Amino acid sequence: MSKGRSRSDHYVNNKEFLQALSDYRYMVNQAKEAGNPRPCIPRYIGECFLKIATHLSYKPNFVNYMFREDMICDGVENCVQYIDNFDINRGNPFAYFTQIIYYAFLRRIQKEKKQLDIKSKILEQSNFDEVFVSDGNILDGSDSEYNGIKNAIHYRMIHN
After folding, report:
1. Which of 74, 116, 125, 137 holds its CA 20 to 30 A away from the CA of 53?
2. Mean per-residue pLDDT for 132-142?
3. How far apart are CA 52 and CA 44, in angstroms?
4. CB count, 10 Å around CB of 59?
């Protein structure tokens, strides 16, 4: 048994993907010349974007994020946004759109980290006792979950 993948195992066929992008570019140019509205992106191209983003999200540096679906959506959205920038003559759409998706993932991670930092600072600036309430009663600090959250926020604020 050989190591690696056979040609049929790839989830996106680069030649078919390139041909679909070329056909789409031709349809866009025809519509522009005729003064018609821009055509929709074909289903096959959209599926390729989604497959690339989904498979990239399984990489070890992205797989454990809670907002993985948001990362995938951002990646597909950026592909649609930059589809016209792809140079058909250069010929590697898989690599081009993988890079777009990769950087979309990094931007989403930065956004989420920034939001987490804002939430942490809000919790730090408010009194913990007022924030954590259970059944209408303020937690007394003996609750292990409360202490765990409090310690995690305190540790994060000290080490950042």
Report:
1. 116
2. 54
3. 12
4. 10
